[in-house]
Amino acid sequence: MQNTVIDAHNISKVYDQGPVAVKAVNNVHLHIEKGEFVALVGPSGSGKTTLLNMIGGLDEPTTGNVVINGVDITKLSSNELIDFRLNNIGFVFQSFNLIPVLTARENIEFIMLLQKVGKEERETRVLKLLEEVGLTDKANAKPGELSGGQQQRVAVARALASKPRFVLADEPTANLDSQSAANLLDIMEKLNREEGMTFVFSTHDQRVIQRARRVITLVDGEVAEDTLQTPLTHAG
Fold it and tell me: CB count, 10 Å around CB of 53?
């Protein structure tokens, strides 16, 4: 179990909608090890984003528990959970969620300021991350001055800035054109391959699914299929 980063035990999420209780996720067990490149897939309403949010501690399971690197995050207080997420989990959202008044450099640096990382280390890490995502020349550009693909690459760099145990990406390519999506996935694959970074995607995008090495299909909040596959390889 040494390489286990995520262990979700029979988690469910029930939303109370008036007289009807809706089970968005139903008794899911999920085990993900370090270095995996996983896609959670399924039709709209299948529960994949809800599951991703529970894994990341953004949403609390109605039943069951989520263990991250041996820590049961469902037993943490609100403040403990905020601190745990900050230091263990990187998030990438389809809407980018960048701070519009900050430059690319400052957006990436922001999470390290929250972690109280020293100035010299922050600067070194930001430059390295900008280089990794191919945006060294855009360091001082604000989000409004960047294309969607460039904003998402800043978002990936920001997610990695905290040196997380793994990265959760919710529909990260949904707002990107084909070339921008391919560039983003190339960066994530490289980080996965060369640095052993674990990625878990919630997606309906075939461009992401084809790259994944493990595809978990959700139907009506339950795992219908869990398949290992040989991903398509991309040059460049």
Answer: 20
Is residue 11 within 8 A of residue 23, CB to CB? The reply is: no
Predicted TM-score (pTM) of the model is 0.94
Q: Tell me, what amino acid is at 189? A: E
For domain 4-228, which CATH number applies: 3.30.750.24, 3.40.50.300, 2.40.300.10, 3.40.50.1950? 3.40.50.300
Q: Are 39 and 192 in contact (CB under 8 A)?
A: no
Distance CA 194, CA 70 (A): 25
Q: In the numeric block, which tokens belong to residue 20?
A: 């009807």
> What are the structure tokens assigned to 196, written together?
């052993």
In angstroms, rounded to a whole number, what is the distance separating the alpha carbons of residues 220 and 47?
A: 7
Neighbouring residues of 11: CB distance < 8 A, sequence distance ≥ 6: 25, 27, 28, 29, 30, 51, 54, 61, 63, 64, 65, 66
Residue 207: other Cβ atoms inside 10 A: 16
CB proximity list for 158: less than 8 A, separation 6 or greater: 90, 98, 107, 108, 110, 111
Is the C-alpha dihedral spanning 79, 81, 86, 92 positive or negative? negative
For the segment 62-105, what is each residue's pLDDT rounded down to a tens digit?
999 999 999 999 999 999 999 999 999 999 998 999 999 999 99
Secondary structure (DSSP) of 192-229:
HHHH--EEEEE---HHHHTT-SEEEEEETTEEEEEEE-
CB 57 within 8 A of CB 73: yes
